[in-house]
Amino acid sequence: MFTSSELASIKNILTPDKNIVIITHYNPDGDAIGSSLGLKHFLRQLGIEAEVIVPNDFPKFLKWMPEAKKIIIADYKRKVAGEAIYNADIIFILDFNASHRSGNLVGPWLEKARATKILIDHHQQPDDFDFVYSDVTVPATSQMIYHFIQALEEEDKVNQDIAECLYTGIMTDTGGFRFRSTSATTHRIVANLIEKGADPAMITSNTWDTNTVSRLHLLALILGRIEVVKDGKVAVLYLKRDELKQYGFQKGDTEGFVNYGLSILGTQVSAFFMEDLYEDFIKISFRSKDHVDVNQFSRNHFNGGGHINAAGGKYFKDLEGTIEDFKEKIEDEDF
Questions:
Q1: Which residue segments constitute the domains of the chain, with CATH numbers given?
Q2: Section 46-65 average pLDDT
Q3: Is-above-0.85 flag for pTM?
């Protein structure tokens, strides 16, 4: 958490006359959107308005959240987003640890911005900003937003809108409270959010019970050809660009696919490879169990990073070459 003097400084500058922007990472997920909107609604309870800016569009299954449709998508509204960042007095940087993680468009704007920059994030090795609250032991940035609210002694300001957004972020980033980083504290916060108006059944239904025919076709493809290597410890899944096109892929359709590899008895790592729909690189998602560090593995070999048990990356070979390189590199890992 921020130190007491940092909290005092932040309280001092959080005033209604300030232009405040909240930015999250490229390809926003449930925690990115949940934490950003949760913070926006909290600031409103303090009488302060803020704009949420995301680098690119986010999945439809997250657009039910309160005021999600008011989020500024930089890819679609470049001038509006650029001016908001340029004119900002304060920028909250949520759920990412370095400017370049906000993409080739927003990243340079963020680096040049004259605003006071406040980072709240749970990824490893954060860049230096004016104020930094970084904790890799917390399973979701949305939980960190709740801790921030508590530290400001404003927990009584949490209303239903805040509760729904933060619950969604925590639920999605913990895999439905299944991941190892989920703690007793996480559950206590979730209980508080439910008391404040978050409806678990409604949120789960709106966020996860949203399969489309195209998503199920794609899931059937990868489940039909899962490969297990490294003596049964590593699962490999993949999708080709022409398959994505064939079944009308939309953003969010492959959310959670990588987790199926970990459901296989004996696996310690799951790796999901997908050809980018428009550019010549391979998107990679890694998941692991226990103390197998896919964050460092991704940083070392696949231009990525994340958490110990959940990381992403990208690779600039073709799909076949990427998977072959992965198989060679993972054999050298000791687990």
A1: 4-208 (3.90.1640.10), 213-331 (3.10.310.30)
A2: 96
A3: yes
